[in-house]
Amino acid sequence: MNERSFLVVGLLFRLHTHWEIENFGVGNGGQDVSDIKIELITEADYREVLEFELNNREFLRQTVPGRDDDQFYQPQNLRSFYESQLVAIEQGESFFYLIRNRIGELAGRCHLYDLMRGARQKAEIGCHLSHQHSRQGIASKALHLLVREAFDTHGLHRIEASTITSNIPAQMAVLRLGFQYYGMSEAYILLNKEWRDCVHFAIVNREWKAKR
């Protein structure tokens, strides 16, 4: 682990400790999420999702893998990508949701993916918002609903989240929900044609319920 990595880990530890001491969101079961909702994608949502992807192309490429490839935005490839998500939902492999605000606008997308059953009972979570709806606290609320869905509806035991080291807002969002930092991986994910370091967080069902 290089010097930069140690600095990131130290910062996250201090942030998490401060939040727990100040009760700033961590474990706060009273978080009001009534102004947003998440819903599984359907065939009928395709046009709206297509517009979301195209309108936020430059914004999403900063944090979402694969969005730096122009081929991704070819109509047939976008359609194939969306259909593969519908199939994954049907087969119980991953679950893809739309995030809507209080007036029904599509604010972003969140998902449970790499779902494992058997002895693991775990999945990873991800979330990305439109440029218009970022930095409004929507991500934390959407992830709250997503984690609750993962534990209560899908019966999972462990939820994990990974972010590139520079994505501090995403790290803050999961820490506020009670996730614990558990490690870092160098050159972990290819983003904008560059291998990026990632930090990893997790929470298990009993910890989630104890903090609510």
UniProtKB/TrEMBL annotation:
InterPro entries membership: Acyl_CoA_acyltransferase, GNAT_dom, N-acetyltransferase
Q: Which UniProt keywords apply?
A: Acyltransferase, Transferase
Looking up Pfam families in the UniProt record yields: Acetyltransf_3
Which SUPFAM superfamilies does the UniProt entry name for this protein? Acyl-CoA N-acyltransferases (Nat) (SSF55729)
One GO term describing the cellular component: cytoplasm
Fetch the PROSITE patterns from UniProt: GNAT
Location of the N-acetyltransferase domain: 36-196
Q: Does the keyword Transferase apply?
A: yes
Instruction: Give this protein's Gene Ontology molecular function annotations.
Output: protein-N-terminal-alanine acetyltransferase activity
UniProt similarity note: Belongs to the acetyltransferase family. RimJ subfamily.
Name listed for the protein in its UniProt record? N-acetyltransferase domain-containing protein
Q: Which organism is it from?
A: Tumebacillus algifaecis
